Amino acid sequence: MADLKILAVDDSPTMRRIIINTLKRAGYSDVTEASDGKDALAKLKVDQFNFVITDWNMPEMDGLQFVTTLRATAEYKDMPVLMVTTRSVKDDIVEAMKAGVNNYIVKPFTPDTLKEKIEQVLAS
Amino acid sequence: MPGTNTLQSNIQKEIVELSTAIGGLVNSFKRLQNPLEESRNKVPQATDQLDKINEQTEAAAHQMLDMIEQITAREEEILEQIDQTRACLESGDNDKILSCLRIIAEKAQTNLNDSFLIMDALQFQDITSQQMNHAASLLEDIEHKLHTIIGVFDSNDGDSEDEKESNARTAKAGKVRAFDPHADLFEKKTNQNDIDSLFDNNGK
After folding, report:
1. Buried (b) or exposed (e) across B122-139, using 16+ Cβ within 10 A?
2. B183 CB near a chain A CB, below 8 Å?
3. Which of A23, A33, A69, A113 has minimal CB crowding within 10 Å?
4. What does the alpha-carbon distance between residue A108 and residue B125 come to, in Å, rounded to a whole number?
5. What are the start-end ranges of the E strands in chain A?
6. Strands A51-54, A6-9: parallel, antiparallel or unpaired by DSSP?
7. Is B203 helix (H, G, I), strand (E, B) or coil?
């Protein structure tokens, strides 16, 4: 748990603060934030991460494009990705699965759900 | 009779012009029908979305205020326990001191938990922000339809200055506006158990 380096991607600064605080409380203190997919790809180039939490609806590059890009890049094709989004329509969830997300949480989420899904993704 | 022929010819010409004008008017009304219908549908959608924002921000604010009131009440009880502990320190009643410290620790822990619940409740900001972006996008669509309607009656060819300005504004906003039209604080179209089942069954 201690050496998990997480990249949290969300266009809402409020949401990023909530996610970072929730992660810290769950024991994950090494968290870097990015404001959209493009920013996240730039951060991935300069730093090593072993877990990504991403939103879907973001300007510039949305979460789906971001995950698709990750899966198409040899270096990140196995990167564990948890999508945290407001999108709760079944077809959207299936689309995210096809793009390559490892698990999916609909906002608003509880700290327990976030912790549980991170653990599930890491265990799989 | 040449006079009658001229009159007949003039009347005929007027009737043809009138007929062309009526034809043009009918076409204009046909062009109006689509934007009017779309505007009529989008106005209630935008209104519903704004009502939802109002309702959900109020509910979230109440949820947070409830927790803040409970935290404040507990803080007052903690201060009371600290006063009692001070008094017990002077009298040397160790059992009472330990009891006060236990109560203080319990209340402080509950306050810590409630502070995190307030943080969770603040997720409403992201959700209502997406709802507002959706409402703004609907209003922009209505603005475009209104420009289309105005364009039908406008004799000038091409986009008016207002329309150009509106298009530029929308294009600029569109670059930063990302939203889920179904974002909702209380209603999820698919619950977490069903999402988990989808992942267990590879999307089937």
Report:
1. bbbbbbbbbbbbbbbbbb
2. yes
3. A113
4. 10
5. 6-9, 31-34, 51-54, 81-85, 103-106
6. parallel
7. coil
Pairing of strands A51-54, A103-106: unpaired
Tokens of B174: 């569109």
In chain B, which residues have their Cβ closer than 8 Å to the Cβ of A87?
Answer: 180, 182-183
Query: Are the Cβ atoms of A88 and B175 closer than 8 angstroms?
Result: no
C-alpha A80/C-alpha B203 separation (Å) is: 18
Residues B120, B63 contacting (CB under 8 angstroms): no
Q: Do residues A37 and A61 touch, judged by C-beta distance below 8 A?
A: yes
Q: Does B123 touch chain A (CB under 8 A)?
A: yes
Yes or no: domain A5-117 corresponds to CATH 3.40.50.2300? yes
Is residue B166's pLDDT more than 90?
A: no
CA B93 to chain centre: 59
Quick count: other Cβ atoms within 10 Å of Cβ A81? Answer: 25
What is d(CA B76, CA A67) in angstroms, rounded to the nearest whole number? 49
DSSP for residue B180: -
Closest CA to A122 of A30, A1, A38, A36: A1
The answer to ipTM > 0.90 is no
Question: What's the pLDDT score for residue B147?
Answer: 81
From the candidates B64, B118, B126, B198, which should be mutated to test the interface with A, based on the most A CB atoms within 10 A?
B126
Position B155 pLDDT exceeds 70? no
Give yes or no for a contact between B155 and B146, defined as CB atoms under 8 angstroms apart: no
How many residues in chain B? 204
